[in-house]
Amino acid sequence: MSIQRDEKRAETFALGSSVYGGRPTFALVRDETGSEATITLYELLPTEQADARQRRLERRRQQSSKTYPFHEVIGGNVEGAEDWTWDDWVAMKVRRLSGSRLRSLLQLFDEALRDTDIDPALITGTGSATVLIPEEPGVRLSLGFIGIKPLQRVDRMRALARGVARMSLEECYYWHAKCRSPNSPSGEKALRSLLTNHL
């Protein structure tokens, strides 16, 4: 990998999470079996933070996301993984999508990854792949994954994806916090209502 590309990737990640020093805090995992492709979005967190979130959810009797050891999900030869130490980090599953829900989000992948050096085709193409992504596009994609999961109508799925793509970064962070917080159990429903109720 060229030095110039390394510098560009470091700059891209630096625009993301300042709390974790520019470390990528999301991962997309594409699995393809037969004719069916699935993409799973994971949020990457220190174990201590993930455990604290799980405890808050359990206290409020809300369903928590499944967590996995980082290396169990990401593996050893994912580009960029070797740049960071992942001891005591976990991958918290956000959602897994396939079929029409996944197809409805394809444009959002392009939009979210536009300002990174990540080629969306790595995930939206064929075969299996794992890609680490910075916080900002990860937050935007998580809104798409969370919002679209229970929808049945394709027009609503597309409206949600377009709405998330048009949000400012500040709006994305606001809605991400609202959807993922144990203190806001109706955040996901409110996001879907905001972006799809006009249909």
Work out the radius of gyration.
16 Å
Number of helices: 10
Strand neighbour order, sheet with most strands: 3-4-2-1-5
Q: What's the structural domain tally?
A: 1
Terminus-to-terminus distance: 47 Å
Low-confidence stretches: 1-17
Nearest-integer average pLDDT: 86
Strand content: 15-25%
N to C succession of SSEs: HEEHEHEHHHEHHHH
The largest sheet, given as strand count, sense and whether it forms a barrel, is: 5 strands, antiparallel
* Structural class category: alpha+beta
Helix content: 40-55%
Shape: globular
Number of strands: 5
Describe this structure in words.
About 50% of the residues lie in helices and about 20% in strands. With about 200 residues, it is an alpha+beta fold. It has one domain. A 5-stranded antiparallel sheet has the order 3-4-2-1-5. Helix 5 runs antiparallel to helix 7, helix 7 crosses helix 9 and helix 7 packs across helix 10. The longest helix is centred in the last third of the chain and has 14 residues. The protein is globular and about 45 Å long. The chain starts with a helix and ends with a helix. The N terminus is likely disordered.
